[in-house]
Amino acid sequence: MINIRKLETELWESADLLRAGSKLTSNQYCMPVLGLIFLRYAYSRFKLVEAEILKNRPMRGGRVLPVEASDFASRSALFLPREAQYAYLINLPENIAEVNLTNRNGEPMTSLGEVVNNAMELVEQQSEQLAGVLPKTYTMFSDELLAELLRIFNNSALDEVGGDIIGRIYEYFLNKFAKNIAQDDGVFFTPKSLVKMIVNVLEPTQGVLLDPACGSGGMFVQTGDFVEHAGMRANNTMTFYGQEKVEYNAQLCLMNLAVHGLTGVVKSGDEANTFYHDAHNLEGCCDYVMANPPFNVDKVKAESAQSAGRLPFGLPSVNKNKEIGNGNYLWISYFYAYLNEQGRAGFVMASSATDSQGKDKNIREQLVKTGHVDVMVSVGNNFFYTKSLPCSLWFFDKGKKEKLRDKVLFIDARNYYTVVDRTLNEWSDWQLKNLNAIVWLYRGEVDKYRALLGEYAGALGSRDFAAVLETLEGQKARLTAEGKEVAAAAPRKERKALEADYAQKVTDTEASIVVAKEALWLTEKFGEGEYADIPGLCKVATLEEIEAKGYSLTPGAYVGVAPTEDDGVDFHQRMTEIHQKLRALQEESNRLMETISKNWEEMGL
Fold first, then answer.
1. Are 444 and 400 in contact (CB under 8 A)?
2. Can you tell me the distance from the alpha carbon of 339 to that of 286, in angstroms, rounded to the nearest whole number?
3. Pick from 426, 351, 392, 387: nearest CA to 184
4. 578: Cβ–Cβ under 8 A, 6 or more apart, which residues?
């Protein structure tokens, strides 16, 4: 069985090592590398569909009829001319000039970079969605470097796991590049756990989805996964629309859609500046709106924004320069305005927006009074790759059940996360399911909650999560001790392999311990499936309670603080002990300083 995480890491390390050796910046390297992964994916899908076509292919003159572009179009797949197929590129000789190749315009090609550029142009000819999108800057690479990159992404493991996994590898590379090159004016990657949370709460299945700040298209891809997991074809049930002012990011988005087998309409450039344009004319038409817009944008021209519409609650504050000094509530208004009568919206927003004052507060009050604010989630620091700021997730639902119209679910998840490294946190898949479970119970969807308990039981082999956790922790301790003993007693040449074997067993046990802890986290709070307000975590507040707090939508204002556990330590006694230890250390420090001073004097210094 292929270890996908290991494969992702190996591919990235190989490609990034070449980048370091080439003296190219991550920004220069990003798009061409993603283009090669896309081409490898397109070839994998091409071969899969080609095999299906050839199964029942008619024959003429004793020969099977060759496949044609129309055969692929009928299966919503991308046809690849021979010169754009990955196998063709991989098998080219080292000296391109000797082969006398010509591009699609009949012009001679003398470098591998020109051949790959030509391949990208040929692919674009097959897809209206990709026209002008794929990178064609491969002549900046030496033939040796480009050939090595092609080889890296021709890893045979990719064929063993199937073409779809390349979509995941594309996302992995996009993620890694995002850490390296995202800047304040072009952050194009929304952390996957935030995207998953938004999609999981909105539960998109069919209809129109708009992301008016779509970046690299993560909302579309995750929605596609959600729909496919529900047993439907995303391209048959969903219509994707995107706006993205930065054209570079829009190219990434279209490639991301294509690499995941999705189709969508994405507009970019000035016409896609959402402050001034509803590029797809979708006001009041969307079943779903998802976005991670840029926070706290200033200098938005008030008159232009006013004339562009989609402001059901009016303009935010306008300064003497006739500019809107903070665009957060423009975005919030747009997301609401795009929804149809049953539409749902989920988006990332600066934490400050939940409690901002002035015109923002007036807009927020009107919004709350609609009864369409559904869920508010506080997210802690370090969820983004380039900033450490906290944020909030907002959810609207114009089709809320009547019994929930005067209620809002507040979740404070600032202290609930998994540490990835020193500067990055995320929600694990189980943590996402637990947060989603709180939403299910608030909505009265107990069956979904109990299905999750079934998942936990399946993963752990028991419904007695506390007993499983105790057993696993004992198993970890036993394996750790046993591993040391076995390795110490083994011949030196076998020791390393034994240590690695036991280390893997401990790692696997630790992974199960994490699952057991998450199962306990959930069931200790909600049992078999009954919603309850949990201090420090969640609270269902009425509109009257929200009004009493000045229409604040900050979860912390409602959920309160979790009770602290009594650790059995007498505070005053412990503080006395600390002060005594501190005095002793100070006295020891003074004695050392006296000794050092005397030594210096004796040395005549």
1. no
2. 5
3. 387
4. none
Question: Degrees (nearest 5) of the Cα angle 550, 552, 554?
Answer: 155
Name the DSSP letter for residue 565.
Answer: P
DSSP string, 532-547: --BTTTEEEEEHHHHH
| pLDDT band, very low/low/confident/very high, at 385 (cuts 50, 70, 90) | low
183 pLDDT band (50/70/90 cuts)? very low
Dist CA 109 CA 605 (whole Å)? 77
Residue with tokens 């996009």, as numbered in its chain: 174
pTM of the model: 0.82
The helix or strand, by DSSP H or E, that contains position 522, with its residue range, turns out to be helix 492-526
Q: If you compute the radius of gyration of the chain from its CA atoms, what whole number of angstroms results?
A: 29
Which pLDDT band holds residue 604 (cuts at 50, 70, 90)?
Answer: low
Measuring CA to CA, which residue among 326, 350, 364, 379 is closest to residue 549? 364
- Residue 497 has a CB neighbour count (10 Å cut-off) of 11
DSSP state of 388: -
- The CB density around residue 531, as the number of other CB atoms within 10 Å, is 20
User: Residue 163 above 50 pLDDT?
Assistant: no
185 pLDDT exceeds 50? no
CA distance 411 to 392: 10
DSSP-derived 3-state class of residue 505? helix
Flag whether pLDDT at 438 surpasses 90: yes
**Across residues 135-139, what is the average pLDDT?**
93
Under a CB-based contact definition with an 8 Å cutoff, are residues 91 and 97 in contact? no
Pairing of strands 418-421, 391-397: unpaired
pLDDT confidence of residue 187:
46
Indicate the pairing of strand 373-379 with strand 407-412. parallel
> Rounded to 5 degrees, what are φ and ψ at 64?
-70, 135
CA 517, CA 534: separation in Å to the nearest integer? 18
Token pair of 22, please? Answer: 């080439």
CA distance 9 to 415: 29
